[in-house]
Amino acid sequence: MLEIKNLYKKYTDANKDIVIFEDLNIRFVKKTKNIILGSSGSGKSTFLNLISSLDNPNSGSIIFNGLDICTFNESQKTFYRRKNIGFIFQFFNLIPTLSVKENIFLPLELNNLLNDEYKNYALGLLDQVGLLDRLETMPENLSGGQQQRIAIVRALVHKPDLIIADEPTGNLDLETASTIIDILSSLIDQTDTTLIIATHDEKLQSISDNVYAVTEKSLRKVEINASL
Predict the structure, then answer these.
(1) What is the CATH number of the domain that holds 123?
(2) End-to-end CA separation in angstroms for the chain
(3) Is 205 left (phi over 0), alpha (psi -120 to 50) or beta?
(4) In this predicted model, what pLDDT tens digit does every residue of 103-138 receive, in sequence order?
(5) How far apart are CA 54 and CA 50, in angstroms?
């Protein structure tokens, strides 16, 4: 479903090249949950930006469902992200001026899917995370854990092929983070979606099928619960 071939990515800082990835080759299979582990600054977020076409490699290919997204123009990249990807962020990124209902319906509106089938699907997801009674609530009146549950629903409502999560538990206390991990895993299991999480939190290995560590300008597959 998603295959990276011979990817090379560098930045230039003060006239010095900093290589992030070199000759990276990796393949993510459909309907798997994948964890990218690494410390701050290791390249996790860069990797997510590359596979979501928010950043471009210097060379190499990123093949999504048979198409090389590195060849897309900006309009095609925007459509690719809007249609195929659901995003979950560390700081939730709910739109503060929109209610819960408006936030979760927004991806449907952007994808011309604001019909009864998809709206009922979205409300069903909201019910599963225990927040159906908060439809008209504004984000500022929700706890961090509640906001992240809304963000998870928003990411899933348009039935994307890929969910990309960047430190989804990084702004939560341990107990709330554990609940969010369980909710995310349960909802993903009900879909055909592939999940890729970038995190420094090794506890997220508990929900994963594959674990990769960012090391030596590449991603190295490691045993689940292995010491990194």
Answers:
(1) 3.40.50.300
(2) 27
(3) alpha
(4) 999 999 999 999 999 999 999 999 999 999 999 999
(5) 6
- 68 lies in a domain? no
Query: Residue 72 domain-assigned?
Result: no
Residue found by looking up tokens 């590449």 in the block: 218
For residues 144 and 159, give the distance between their C-alpha atoms in angstroms, rounded to a whole number.
24
Q: Is residue 6 part of a domain?
A: no
How many whole angstroms separate alpha carbon 122 and alpha carbon 20?
38
Please give the C-alpha separations between residue 187 and each of 90, 193, 223, in angstroms, as whole numbers: 18, 10, 24
Of 65, 47, 64, residue with least CA distance to 8: 47
Counting every residue written for the chain, the total comes to 228
Number of domains present in the structure of the chain: 1
Domain that holds residue 211: 30-59+82-222
CB distance 58 to 8 below 8 Å: yes
- 143-181 pLDDT per residue, tens: 999 999 999 999 999 999 999 999 998 888 888 888 998
Q: Which helix (H) or strand (E) holds 59?
A: strand 59-64
Give the Cα separation of 207 and 48 in Å (integer). Answer: 19
Provide the CB-side half-sphere exposure for 15 (13 A, CA). 0
